[in-house]
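In response to reviewer comment 3 from the previous cycle, which asked for concrete evidence that the modeling workflow produces usable outputs, we include below a single protein chain processed end to end. The sequence was submitted unchanged, and the resulting structure tokens are shown without manual editing.
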Amino acid sequence: MTVLRMGFDAVRIDRMEKKLKGEAFCRRAFSEEENAIFARKKHPAPTAAANFAAKEALAKALRCGIFGFDLREAPVLRREDGSPYFAFSGELARRMEQEGLAAELSLSHEGEYAFAVVLLQPAEKRSAGGEEQGTQEERECRG
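The workflow returned the following structure tokens.
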């Protein structure tokens, strides 16, 4: 698997806690689905900080800066197993497809900070039936 680009970012959780008090920031930085997730949490700041760090790390990996795409088009969601992923939409989804890119995402929290690493790599090819291609080992790791 070839990694094309990488981005990393860290966000102070207390800074995000203050930012979450502003509705305008939440509407500008996060998708409706992300804001709904935060609203269900007793302490949303760590999750919001990790999601925002992911968007900043993505901007670095794309080499476009934080204003290079609509942040709401890169919602950070969680799979059933808790692992994070981007659910790209709109112009950003078209860009990723046109450039043949897929994003891998890792998030973490430690003390006062949330961290994110984004790896951009070639998008996996799909068979005519829509199934992912790759080695047997890669398919087994994906579950």
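Residues 126 and 132 are 5 Å apart (CA to CA). We consider this sufficient to address the reviewer's concern, and the full set will be provided in the supplementary archive.
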